Amino acid sequence: MKREERQQLFDTAKQWVLEAGENIRTAIDEPLRIDTKSNANDLVTHMDQQTEKFFTEKIRREFPDHSILSEEGYGDNLDSDKGVIWIIDPIDGTMNFVHQKRNFAISIGIYQDGVGEIGLIYNVMDDVLYAARRGEGAYRNEKKLPQLKQELPLEEAILILNNFWTCPNHKIEETKMQSLVRKVRGTRSYGSAALELAYVAEGIADCYLTMKLAPWDIAGGMVLVNEVGGLTTKADGSPINILEQNTLLSCNGDIQEELVGEYIELK
Ligand code: IPD
Ligand code: CA
Ligand code: CA
Ligand code: CA
Question: Which InterPro entries does the annotation name (predicted)?
């Protein structure tokens, strides 16, 4: 994608994200219609659906040749990464949205032929926008984010990890996860994959490891982390397929090597 095209697309997407966020903030104290999806803890509200529709209607009108991959069913069924694809999570952290009315984000990644061109993650209630364009750095609001520290001993690292992966599970060897938890300086869990990736990009956490995420959870964040010199791969270090569910490891190259070599044992 040419720089000028990317810039124009970025300006439009950013304006829509801020507008969608404003709509959510305005409605934050109104009663929610809450449904469940795959299980009793997999929540969806009418605001998730309404926000996704807000984007899909605008994209189809303004960019009829672009495709959409999104969580709540208003997007397209895609089997190829060719062309321009908007990968959208209208509310990432729906459980936080429902229970806390904060700590959730709108996440958008815009990819062309599989390459991440634009990443936008908007912490709606804090009014903080993380934004990146390929080759042009990543920002937290107006502030450009520095490159990640490339040498950081694990003993000094903050690891974002859901406690679930230290309990017996069918994806990853939990005893190794327990020794990793003992090794690092501390662990955190924020309940929004998009914000968790933004925090890695910002350098306020050093690594995010998880076993199951969808394209819309990670598409925006991957662009951000790339722009500050970080790596985002599957948990075994192999490349991510952005159209599929993935395990995920996002951090600097040093930490990635150590975790893949010594701590991550997939079942
Ligand atoms: C979820 C959040 C959560 C992660 C889940 C995701 P949603 O997204 O990102 O942090 O652990 O795997 O499904 O459903 O709130 O958009
Ligand atoms: Ca969901
Ligand atoms: Ca999500
Ligand atoms: Ca969501």
Answer: Inositol_monoP_metal-BS, Inositol_monophosphatase-like, Inositol_monophosphatase_CS
Task: For the chain, list residues with pLDDT below 70.
Answer: none
Helix axes 193-202, 215-227, angle to 10 degrees: 10
Q: What is the pLDDT of residue 150?
A: 85
Cβ–ligand 1 distance for 192 under 6 Å, the answer: yes
Query: Which pLDDT does position 253 carry in this prediction?
Result: 86
For ion ligand 2, residues whose CB falls within 5 Å: 94
ipTM field? 0.98
Residue 89 Cβ contacting ligand 1 at under 6 Å: yes
Please give the CATH architecture assigned to the domain spanning 154-263: 3-Layer(aba) Sandwich (3.40)
Residues with CB under 5 A from ligand 4 (ion): 71, 89, 91-92
The CATH architecture one would assign to domain 3-144 is 2-Layer Sandwich (3.30)
Q: Of 207, 164, 163, 217, whose CA–CA distance to 185 is shortest?
A: 207
